[in-house]
Write a structure and sequence with these properties.
341 residues, Beta-lactamase, 2 domains, two-stranded antiparallel sheet, 9 helices, 36% helix, 20% strand
Length: 341
């Protein structure tokens, strides 16, 4: 008897027929083939019953809009991906990797898996996604907001230094809010982010967290952490189009598709695969964190992937992001038979 513990017990019973000693070899062989054929047919014809877990938007008095619904159990093909990731992570611990966590969601059918999701991390520049969402929400109620101009002072203080950075706005330059948003997301520009801080409504910023079921951060705190599955809610909310307006969600994802960070998820993917992604750094020399969250548009089977890592140096952690992305992509391109546990 093979029993899977899920909200409703679903039991698949396989009966083995005993045979006489003289004909044992013949009957056991035939019976094994019959059992395998029956099992294969059952797997192909029936997706095992699994309850759904729903997540709802907060911030309302009388309604609770559902922004995400996913099965409570992980399918077998996801468990196979998890095992491959674990083998790689354990091997990389000899090369300076301290820990890694993964959240993977098949956006075609809500299948998912998490790896080491109890670990928490400082998201770093991935918070720029939340800033973008906040600014687009402000724009929805303030016509002309995105065309507001801001000037970066010539003697502005220097923002935190990033290992991975492609382009910054120039001190003394004047830019529209929508131009600053683009530089913040596409180039992870800390100067643009610093300038946008002056027009970012902190109440809306914090409400974005509470709306998605997360504890809002203290804007003055430096030790706010999230798990890989928790941070996945932000880019997932953009993809679902249920948090911002549909045009704003489309614009936000389009900007993420322009991201210039090439050292992580993008590195081993085919050039024709579209990926909407944002990375984040945190830590200090010798104790680095590097993360990435993305929607990968794999033909008609898009998936959400968030990987968060800690280790001795950022370059090695970028290798980890790239390799885990490749493991997931290679497995997601293979046709799978889905069973849930």
């Amino acid at each position: 008897m093979f029993r899977k513990r899920i909200p409703l017990f679903y039991v698949l019973t396989v009966t083995v027929v005993s045979c006489g000693i003289s004909a044992g070899a013949v009957w056991v062989g035939r019976n094994n083939k019959t059992n395998e054929a029956t099992k294969d047919a059952t797997i192909q014809q029936e997706e095992q019953k699994c309850a759904y877990n729903t997540q709802q938007l907060g911030g309302y008095h009388y309604i609770r809009p559902v922004y995400q619904a996913e099965k409570e159990c992980e399918p077998s093909y996801m468990l196979s991906i998890k095992a491959s990731i674990d083998n790689y992570v354990q091997a990389m611990k000899n090369n300076g990797l301290s820990t890694a966590s993964v959240c993977l969601r098949n956006l075609q059918n809500t299948d998912w898996m998490t790896y080491n999701d109890g670990e928490r991390y400082h998201p770093g520049s991935m918070f720029k996604i939340v800033t973008m969402m906040t600014l687009f929400r402000t724009a929805a109620t303030e016509p002309g907001f995105l065309n507001t101009t801001l000037t970066l002072p010539v003697n502005c203080p220097k923002p935190p230094v990033q290992t991975f950075n492609t382009e910054n706005i120039k001190p003394g330059g004047t830019y529209k809010v929508k131009e600053l948003i683009r530089n913040m997301v596409v180039h992870s520009d800390n100067y643009a982010t610093m300038l946008l801080h002056d027009v970012t409504n902190q109440d809306i910023f914090k409400k974005t967290f509470s709306d998605l079921g997360l504890t809002p951060p203290d804007v003055h705190a430096t030790d706010y952490t999230l798990s890989s599955s928790e941070f996945s809610r932000f880019i997932g909310a953009l993809y679902d189009g249920r948090y911002l307006s549909l045009p704003a969600s489309e614009t936000a994802i389009a900007l993420l598709c322009e991201s210039q960070f090439q050292q992580g998820f993008r590195r081993f993917l085919p050039p024709n695969v579209v990926i909407a992604h944002k990375f984040g750094e945190a830590g200090k020399p010798g104790r680095q964190e590097l993360h990435e969250t993305a929607i990968v548009y794999l033909n008609e089977k898009p998936y959400l992937l968030t990987v968060m890592t800690k280790g001795s140096n950022s370059q090695m952690l970028a290798d980890v992001l790239a390799q885990i992305s490749k493991i997931v992509y290679d497995n997601m391109t293979v046709p799978t038979t889905q069973t849930h546990t």
